[in-house]
Amino acid sequence: MTERATFGAELRRLRRAAGISLTELADRVHYSKGYLSKVETGRTAPNPSLAALCEAELGAPGALTPLLPGAAAPRRRTRPEPRPSGLPPAVSTFVGRDEELSRVREALEADGGVCVISGLAGVGKTELAVRCAHRFEASFADGCLFVDLRGPGGRAAEPPEVHDRLLRALGVPPETIPAAPDDRATLYRAGLRGRSVLLVLDNAVSSAQVRPLLPAEPKCRVLITSRSRLAPLDEAAQVPLDVLSPAAAAELFSSLARCGPGDAVTRIVSRCGHLPLAVRIAAARLRTRPAWDVRELDRRLADANARLRELDDGERSVRAVFELSAQHLPADEARLLGLLALHPGLEFDLGSASALGGHEDHETDRLLDRLYDAHLLSQPSAGRYAFHDLVKSFAREHILATLDRPDVAQAQRRLLDFAVRTAQLADRLIAPLRFRPTVEMAGDAPAPADPATEQQALDWFRLEWRALATLCRAAGEDGHHARCWQLAYFLRNYFFRIKAWDTWCDTHRAARAAAEAAGDQWAQAATTANLGVGLIDRGDIRGASECYREALALYREIGDEHGESTVLAHQAWARHYLGDHRGALADLREALKFYERVGNSRNAAITRRGMALVLTALGRAAEAAELAAATLDVFDRLDLGFDAAMTLNCLGWAYFHLADHTRAGAAYQEAVARAEACGSPHEAARAYTGLGNIAMARGDEEQAVAWWELADEAHPALDPLILGEARVRGA
């Protein structure tokens, strides 16, 4: 049996013993299935790169390399052969990264052939580079040279030192290597002339460190890894490396921990932020502790405040690699990174960052750009930045904790001021005629973001509302009582638009407590009344009624007739849903008298729309339709698209009760258009449900189901207690 056949036969035996198909092995080692088939059958000679990859994937170190054929005679050369590269072994557990492997290949095959793999510490840059080097080494006649540039952390390798190491690897006698850095660089470039070498420069600190190491020989290629993007290397192709996908992270963990998939594994890799280093450490801790199971590890990682401490296996530490990245930051960048950890979301905009840092936008933009280049922040879209959650934990625990307490307190105050001012402006754009309290700001309060249109305001709220809700609750806990209830107040119209009732109630409970702590009776009355609105739309009618009684008493005590009338209008809905339609109509008429007397046309129109729904419930649908149509004209005149959409649904409901399906259908169709234009999936779903009800009433079940499916897509599970259309559908 020949050496070549022995290699192929042993490869086939190892593969089958591992239960791996030829196709799967091809995917893992990134050689074609056809090529591997020829190797196994002895029709193609294997190479050292393939041997190393297969040994790693099959868990058989040293099993294949000794069987490589040695019959090929060495080519004659006029210069010394390069010494062995010392390329590190490829890890056996390598998942995902197919797209990045392809991009590295394309970069190395292109003219210039310089590729930078950059990414967050622990994301797997070196693993990918080594995998690529093993995969592509056979394409380079003179092999591969690997150098660790030792940065960040420790003393970064200087170019003359690296030149000396590379020259020795190229076979240059040490005594002939010049001492002068320029002469050494010249000899290095000359030594690569005419050669075909893949140069791997791992762990680069800066472009200044790398540039003197780039060969002039066009047949050479360079693969660089760095925590920085090395943007000044204009000739380099960039391959930024992100964390693993959830599926790939779970596969990596399961393979290393030797456990099956499951919900606990999914949670564990999520708590690791899908960062490969964190996943590997977590798997190592589980694998080496027989008394643990995945639930125990999941429990330990559940505490975000202890997570970095848990992600340490004695030799590897997520916290340690982040420290290496952070210790080289200039003071202003480190300060901003720490203060950004105060932001309640993982993602934030330039305005919030400027408020936290206390800088002008242009200066903040510069600092954020530096942190982005260092992969300590990512940029999901223009003007927005994001933390990896483990980086945020590190920034909070190890940078923010070192900052001066007064500086941190001022940053918190500035962020709250920015949030309240911007929310107030955005709220005014989406509900322009609603009453708003006066908000006092210090003279040094940061300028707000400046949404100019209703759509821009909706977009800002869409991106920020979760963080704003968290900030609202935190403000109350930290004693910023006014900012707490103000944030809740300015969020209410957006929450009403998207029907975020759970968050509405959470923020308003915090706001009510803050207003009470501040001794502000008006704020306590307003937030209590608004809490009732959230409770009633969640179906807690009695809880809402209690809120309305409390708010009504507070408004009457302070003599606020506007607030009293608004609560009466709200209270009417509680009576209506409890079946007391006549009592509801009486409350609405009482509120209407005040709105008409003070000339509040918007609130008067909203009240009449409510009366139309109550009249429909009382069997007076014709009167209701006439009232709703007149109300629609008011909203159109005031250019209030959301209120118009609600009114069209009310009109469609009245016509449906009159069995006037043609006019009901037209009203619902127009409601769909208006709801979609103003960004209200709830009102669109209500209209789709009404159209389905009309189709069913006409005997067209297939069309009814089609409309109802559209309703479910827009906003699932409309509450039949609140919406008549949902009750009819469910009947």
- CATH topology descriptor of the domain at 81-242: Rossmann fold
Estimate the helix proportion, in percent. 55-70%
List the strand order in the largest sheet: 2-3-4-1-5
The radius of gyration computed from the alpha-carbon positions, rounded to a whole number of angstroms, is 34 Å
Which structural class is indicated by helix and strand composition?
A: mainly alpha
CATH homologous superfamily classification of the domain at 81-242: P-loop containing nucleotide triphosphate hydrolases
CATH architecture type of the domain at 81-242:
3-Layer(aba) Sandwich
CATH class of the domain at 81-242: Alpha Beta
- Assembly classification: single chain
CA(first)-CA(last) distance: 80 Å
Low-confidence sequence ranges: 71-84
Number of helices: 34
Strand content: 5-15%
Mean pLDDT: 91
Based on Cα principal axes, name the global outline.
elongated
